[in-house]
Each structure stands twice: as C-alpha cells, then as structure tokens.
C-alpha cells in the first residue's frame, strides 16, 4: 500500500511539474509581445561592458570607436572571402573579433557555442574591455546574449524581459528558444511559472512576420 501511495504521488507530482514546453510557450509569448518591429539603431547594454547590436553596428567603425568597443563577436558562418574582409575591417583599428559559425536554422545546435562565446566575453570583461555581440539578423546574437545573462545568474525570463525591453526584436528562431530553455534548466535558472504573466499576442500573420524577420529594421 505504501508503495502504491508513493508511486501515485510521484506520478501526480510529475504531472504538476511544468515541462520545457510550458516554458517555451511563456518564452515565445514574452518575445512576441509588442513592440516587435525593428531594433534600435545603436547597441544596447546586456550587462556591464557587454553590448548587443546588429552587424550594421559592428561594421560601423566610427560608431565602434565612439562606443570604445575593443572586442566583437560575429555570429555568422562566413566564407573565406568574407573572413578576409572582416580582418581588413577590424585589424587596422585594433578591434579583436571572434567569428562563431552559427547558422540561423531551427535545427542548428547553437548550444554547442555558448561556452565559447562566454569565455571570449569573460576575457574581455576581465581586461575591462567592451565587447559587442552581433549577427546579420537578430536570433544568433540574441540567443548568445541571453545565454550569457543566464550564465551570470539571471533567470530565463529575467534575461529575456531585460533584453526584450531594450531590443524590441530579440529572438525569432524556435529551435534556439528550445535550446535556451534546456540551458536554463541545466543551470537551474528556470523561473517559477506561477505568477509569470505572459499573455499570447498577435494574429498568425503577425507571428509569421516576427519569426521570419531576419534583417534589422531601424526605427
């Protein structure tokens, strides 16, 4: 009888525990809340001397000098010709860069690159350098910035709301969202879902537009 009661309790408890899909749904709701169109025309602070911006920001050398950026993470799978162009752009102005070959594809395992990005960022912070995370769209740099905040002790939704408020359009790749939820669980940084308000927004056509928006639109 005791065994039966214990097993029944375990099943009921498991049924009550939120699943990763529950967190994914809340995460998508937060990310799709208005405003959802365009990104700011300048980098935004992630934490301390870590910034999140667009590739257009990164390639704007006068802006990078004005922001005193000394390191840049470029989240893009580049060709050899593109790599040489990046090298020619940043070496003359003493900006150190790290190219992380992330594809904006829902099947891509972006999780494999979290630690690589975090090490580069932490090295920069230790030296007092400013570092920019950038990509050609929003999802690749967005997921790395969110993963870094989680590694620094933010919960999943704290990190997401912090950057969503600053960037408007932050993360559209659902595969990346799933991996971010798993990473937050691994780091014990999932929020208590009770009391988390994240209503669902948008018509299907609006959500399609958000998911398919890979180029920053400046407002």
UniProtKB/TrEMBL annotation:
EC identifiers of the protein: 3.1.3.48
Record InterPro entries: Dual-sp_phosphatase_cat-dom, Prot-tyrosine_phosphatase-like, TYR_PHOSPHATASE_DUAL_dom
UniProt keyword Hydrolase present: yes
Gene Ontology terms for molecular function: protein tyrosine phosphatase activity
Enzyme class: hydrolase
One BP annotation, GO: negative regulation of MAPK cascade
Superkingdom in the source lineage: Eukaryota
Family of this protein: Belongs to the protein-tyrosine phosphatase family. Non-receptor class dual specificity subfamily.
Protein name from the UniProt record: protein-tyrosine-phosphatase
Lineage summary: Eukaryota, Metazoa, Spiralia, Lophotrochozoa, Annelida
């Amino acid at each position: 009888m005791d065994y039966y009661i214990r097993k029944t309790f375990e099943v009921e408890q498991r049924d009550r525990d939120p699943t990763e899909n529950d967190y994914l749904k809340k995460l998508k709701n937060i990310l799709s809340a208005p405003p959802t169109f365009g990104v700011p025309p300048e980098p935004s602070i992630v934490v301390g001397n870590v910034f999140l911006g667009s590739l257009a920001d990164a390639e704007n050398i006068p802006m990078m000098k004005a922001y005193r950026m000394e390191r840049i993470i470029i989240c893009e799978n580049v060709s050899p010709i593109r790599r040489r162009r990046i090298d020619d752009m940043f070496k003359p102005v003493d900006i150190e860069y790290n190219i992380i070959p992330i594809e904006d594809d829902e099947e891509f395992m972006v999780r494999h690159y979290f630690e690589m990005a975090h090490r580069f960022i932490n090295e920069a912070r230790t030296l007092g350098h400013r570092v920019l995370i950038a990509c050609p769209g929003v999802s690749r740099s967005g997921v790395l910035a969110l993963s870094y905040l989680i590694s620094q002790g933010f919960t999943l939704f704290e990190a997401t709301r912090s950057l969503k408020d600053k960037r408007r359009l932050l993360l559209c790749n659902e595969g990346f969202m799933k991996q971010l939820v798993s990473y937050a669980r691994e780091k014990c940084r999932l929020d208590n879902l009770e009391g988390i308000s994240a209503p669902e927004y948008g018509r299907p056509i609006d959500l399609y537009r958000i998911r398919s928006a890979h180029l920053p639109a400046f407002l």
